[in-house]
UniProtKB/TrEMBL annotation:
This is Beta-1,3-glucosyltransferase. SUPFAM superfamilies: Nucleotide-diphospho-sugar transferases. Residues 6-134 form the Glycosyltransferase 2-like domain. GO terms for molecular function: glycosyltransferase activity. Signal peptide: none annotated. InterPro entries: Glyco_trans_2-like, Nucleotide-diphossugar_trans. Keywords: Glycosyltransferase, Transferase. Pfam families: Glycos_transf_2 (PF00535).
Amino acid sequence: MTYDLTVIIPVYNMENLLSNCLDSIVEQNKLDECSLRVICVNDGSTDNSQKIIEEYSDRFSFIEILNKKNGGVSSARNAGLDMVSDSEYVTFIDPDDSIYPNYIQNFILNKGSDVIYFDFDLVDSEGKILKQLNVNPFYSKLESEEVNLRYFLLTKHASWTRIYRSEFLSKFRFPLGKIYEDIALMPYITSLCSSVNYIQIPIYKYTVNTPGSIMNSSKSNIFDIYDSLTHLFSLFGNHFEEYKDELQYLAIEHLCVGHTYRLLNYPEATKQDFKDIVIFMEKYFGKHWDKNKYVKRGVQKVNINSSLSYVVPVFLKFLRYGGFSVWPVIKKVKGS
């Protein structure tokens, strides 16, 4: 059987929100017009997640369960990708999120390109909309596919934020044992695409402030961002220079800004941690690593969901000339 779309859901101890996620799928408009396969990868859950998936699988033939030992979200997503066959497109949904009733309908209308992007809403655990995100206000049908794809290469890189032709993910997997697994892979997959469709309305609901969120982390694994960026750069290989501006922007957003933000919640952070950021940036982007054309165009004002987005150029100057001394300033901005 050939599927139009395969959805992979990595599940670990999500009994409280999982039913809401699965309900949003089975209640889709135009579901009968889409050959859909949903693979729920139970990553060794110790709560009732497996039971919930089994109940839905019994009721709906397009929902499947794969049980595996706990290995983390990358391992779960990779296990799902290993099961993808004869599917035109593939995407991911996180078990604490949900999709709007018109998700499948809009997918059907926008089939044909290598990748499909869409806007999404930020919601709380009760489903209340906190903010609507226009993921790419720089998109224009008057621009070439290459220009539009380069801007999408900069957008939020969670695996659920786009729908790829399955062939683009067939040879690639998420790095294991690290957080920031999406930034390590997703931008590169987008660079392989030649065409894009953009659904300019929110069709996905992203639940914010879920316990264990990276942005709220005080654990040492926040330093995985270095490995993830290095992994991403290595994937580009000989094409690094061709995409240097885009990769530099991603490093600025996720390392210079995002990592610094998280260091503020890390009790063991040192002055050297700030210096290491500058050392990394100089290694890959030279002495003028803080100057980037996308920052000048204000892309960060869309991508960074914080007041920091408005002061990034100034903030980078502080970081470059002794970032450890800017802690008090960042703390004030961080709280707003």
